[in-house]
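The following block was generated as part of the benchmark described in Methods. Ligand: zinc ion.
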Amino acid sequence: MSQIVDIHTHYSGRSKGGDPLGVGGAMRSVRVGRNMYSDYKGMPNLAHYELGDFQLQQEVSHRAGITYRLMSNPFPSEVLSEISPRSSIDVCKHFNDEIAEIVATAPNDTRGLGSVNPLEKNHIREAERLMGPVGFKGLHLVTSWHGAFLDDEAAFAFWEYAQDKNVPIFLHPPRVPIGANQQMDQYKLDELVGRPFDTTMCAARMILSGLFDRFPRLQICLAHMGGGLLPCIGRLDFGWQLGCEGMPERAAIKCKNLPSTYLRRNLHVDIMGGWAPHVREALEVFGPDRVMFGTDYGPIPVDPKEHVEIVRAMGLSPDDEEKVFWKNADAFFDLGLSTRLRPS
Ligand SMILES: [Zn+2]
């Protein structure tokens, strides 16, 4: 039986009433047809209605051949913790509980991924709740939190926890990315260019700062094939090879090995992006053991079948195709799907 696990799919129950987080009209959303328009921090944004329609998501995904979905909601915790009078941990908890509620309605084929801020030590408590009693399968973290990237010393306690407990980590760019104040308020550039480069900055900083030397067993999946990481990785390598002699200590590259070494040691990617040549490159660079199927369905209401067809057209061996479609995700997130398939 063939399976397809979509590790990258979002749901938000934003239509629910009330204002439990006391954020009032901060997002200033206006209805446009079935969608919602907002311009938080000056970034014009359309939220497609599919994001809030879980039943529709399930139907469309099943029609595309997807048999299992990992649900997350990466944006609101980071955005609203800046505005809400409630603590950031309460804000995260609110949105994590919403994901827990929705996956509980489809327990056979969905599981949740939770959001916390790795830069706040007390969020480890929320991470433990999610990975314990709540039953989530991993943490879906934004690549920068209020502009700070995740290699900062403030996140060391979190990375130590994630490494010790083998917590699967999925990194995803935030709603308002790096460079948002530099002419990104047109043509959806914040979403189309800024977000992949937020992921790129996060991954590059984690590699170059030596974070993966400090926590060598960390295993991290990057959304959107690593954002813009692959076109930049040769530059990271030559920067390292040329050395930093004469530069101030804080500016010098710290990692012990050639930056590209860490790709197959600590990183994984999903295939979301709708661009077959990038998927081919991801498979070549990371290898078929480190590439997982993901669609971003919900906020990106493109039929997930398009991503299925991109993988099918790669010309992979049946074994490698299964790895990309579900076996890698099964192992990375410990979903227990291979046991399910065994005849009883
Ligand atoms: Zn996404």
